[in-house]
Structure formats: structure tokens, C-alpha cells
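Lab notebook page, bench 4
Experiment: in silico fold of construct C2
Operator: M.H.
Input chain length: 185 residues
Purpose: comparison with the prior construct
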Amino acid sequence: MSVIVIEFVTLDGIVSDPDGSAGTSAGGWAFRHGPETVAGDKFRLGSTLDEGVMLLGRTTWQLFSRIWPGRDDPFAARMNAAPKLVASRTLTDTSGWVNSRVMDGGLVDVVNGEKRDVIVIGSPSVVHALMASDLVDEYRLLTFPTILGTGHRLFPMDGPPTHLECLSAERSGAAVLTRYRRTRA
């Protein structure tokens, strides 16, 4: 089992409001580069999406539950079919997106008990909690040629040192997809 973090990120490490749905003044930065940059399986999830489980925070799940069920392309079919765990203390109804359920138990315990690969998409608070517990195995980052200077960072300024190995880097439209694996000392 691996924990794989999937993020749209700016050159300065900001992950907040890539699509503009949060209404921030700098929001929508990822979508300014056209649909070819963000459409389809840009993160090369492939069979990992079919065999793993997605883990989403409440805010990301609520956004996705309004977007993905209405799409019918091949990648959307895979997103919709994948099992989804929602990390939330307040959400009770997950009927808006098939194969979704609120996690039963604490985040770290649920992830540690999971036998499938766990794919965390967006959900910065979930990612930060998993980082703090040293549970992230891989980062797949679609980095956009944008500098915001403010917003929520993927890697907190006061976080512990983390050593990564670059597995790959490839251009994807205006962005660059990089894959990093955590190295163990």
C-alpha cells in the first residue's frame, strides 16, 4: 500500500483554489492555461485509480461531487467508479457521488489500515495531516508557470525536512508533471 498525493501547484508551492471555486482573488490559476493542461488522466494514475481508493477532504469531495458525476468521458467513468473515502467530521450524506462514504475512524488509523493504494487529490488539510504522520509515499505534482505569493502551501514553512527522489518529469500543456518518491534514511 502506498499513499500518493495528487496536486495542482504553482511554482511557489501554492495549492489553494486552482479552479477558482473558492472565490479567492487569485483563484482559477490552473485553468487559465486551457483545458488540455488539466483534462484527463494528467497524473498518470491508470490502474492505481481502478484498484486503489481515493481519499478526499470534505471541501474537495463536495466540489468533485458536483463536477464528476455529470461527466461521461473515459477518465470520468474511472473517477466515478473508484471507491472514495471522505475525511470529515460534519458531512453525513455522500449520496451525491457514487462509491463515496465518510471515513469511519481517525485519518491516520484508516490510512494505516488500508490495504489498497490511497490516492489523495487536493485536500490540503488531509495531505498536511498525512505528512505530519510521515505517511506520504509519493507526490505527483502538476506544476503551473504561475507565482501567487500567497495562499495555502503544499509544504508548510515549518514542516520537517523531507527527502525525495525524482521519478519523472514531463511537460503537460503549459504545466510540468513531476513524480517524487519519499526516500527513507
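Observations: The first helix runs from residue 35 to 38. The radius of gyration is 16 Å.
Next step: discuss at group meeting.
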